[in-house]
Amino acid sequence: MIQTIQIAPPDDWHLHLRDGEALECVVAATALNFRRAIVMPNLRPPVTTVDQAVAYRGRILAAIEKACATGNYTVEEKAAMRRFDPLMVLYLTGATSPHEIEKAANSGVVKAVKLYPAGATTNSDAGVSDLLGQCGAVLHAMEEHGVPLLVHGEVTDTDVDVFDREAAFVETVMRPLRTRFPNLRVVFEHITTEQAATFVTENSGRDSQGRLLLAATITPQHLLYNRNALFKGGLQPHWYCLPVLKREVHRKALLKAATSGLPQFFLGTDSAPHAKHLKEMSCGCAGCYSAPYAMAMYAEAFEQVGALNDVSLFEQFCSLNGPAFYGLPVNEGAFVMQRKKFEVPTSLPFVTESGIVPLRAGETLDWTVTRLV
Ligand code: DOR
Ligand code: ZN
Fold first, then answer.
1. Percent of the chain having pLDDT more than 90?
2. Ligand 2: centre distance to CA 44 (Å)
């Protein structure tokens, strides 16, 4: 049985860091585990311009400095945190211009543009209701400049069952999008279904520069849990995220995709912090906070299907496929985990007194992160 995992430092290709005090509470957890992260722009108001993205990146780096100055971290941990590189994303609206895309492509800071179908999830009301109808010129500019479109892939039609919204999105948006913009580079974010995994497996060609055209991120919760987790012994708000957990057959398809060694699947936690009292209420928020322990959870998922024996599969998913898609170098240094039991705290400090409940609070994990250098 493998006791130590050593891989190139991983990146998180889908992360919510929030802003202000919330940002200060969560940023260290990511910077201690990941070298880079694609930071989601669904703030209030959303990050819609390059200037806003540059300013937000500055606040993230300042929050890291503050954590280093005030937190109880070792010299090695502080050095790791200071190497964290936030990769920024613009929030697509009906008003996004082709000029802003060109500016983003030349910014060196903005790496992608995010589609939130209006009404699909947290802070998505400023999003787009008809992607192909509203955003043709912008998608064309993204295609031209090689700026990836990151997609929250759910239809928002309330007539469609909530568990079917991703599968419906594959047919009504993804397929036509690939046909109309064949050179647009797309990441299908936090996929949850067999339909999405199959679509990404079968439709990912390469552009003239040899770059993949279609990829997908997968979260730890969708690899480890099916929708039963939402109702186990009562309603479980801390397992509620969007897209919602699906049936076991879908979880199995995601595990197969993540451990396939195919270059189009990579790590994206979708770690999405919400205060405890805003999750445990009559209309609780969607989002699982997984960042501090996500790497242990991914290792557990890989081990479940015997895919940890060859650590290179794990490394591809966590540390190699993402950089290759984004045209970035693989991180130098090493990330090490030991097989050592670790109990997830039941609550962590957050903005309000209620704190934040991490995913799998109170449970014991098999792996402990020992080093990011
Ligand atoms: O569960 C989710 N939470 N899904 C999303 O798409 C957004 C995220 C958030 O921002 O809280
Ligand atoms: Zn997200």
1. 94
2. 14
Give every strand in the sheet of 364-372, ordered side by side: 4-7, 335-343, 364-372
Q: Establish whether 207 is a catalytic residue.
A: no
Give me the domains of the chain, ranges plus CATH numbers: 4-372 (3.20.20.140)
Distance CA 211, CA 201 (A): 15
Q: Is 273 close to ligand 1, i.e. is its CB under 6 Å away?
A: no
In a mutational test of the pocket of ligand 1, which residue from 15, 17, 42, 271 has the highest number of ligand atoms less than 8 Å from its CB? Answer: 42
Which residues is 348 bridged to in the sheet? Answer: 356
The CA distance from 316 to 7, in Å, is 9
- Residues around ion ligand 2, judged by CB within 5 A, are 270
pTM to 2 decimal places:
0.98
Contact between 289 and 358 under an 8 Å Cβ cutoff? The reply is: yes
- Which pair of tokens denotes residue 162? 């909530």
Model pLDDT for residues 138-168, shown as the tens digit of each residue: 999 999 999 999 999 999 999 999 999 999 9
- The answer, yes or no, to whether any atom of ligand 1 lies below 6 A from the CB of 286, is yes
42 Cβ below 6 A of ligand 1:
yes
C-alpha dist (Å) from residue 172 to 36, 121, 135, 319: 33, 18, 16, 32
**Hey, how many other C-beta atoms are within 10 angstroms of the C-beta on 37?**
27
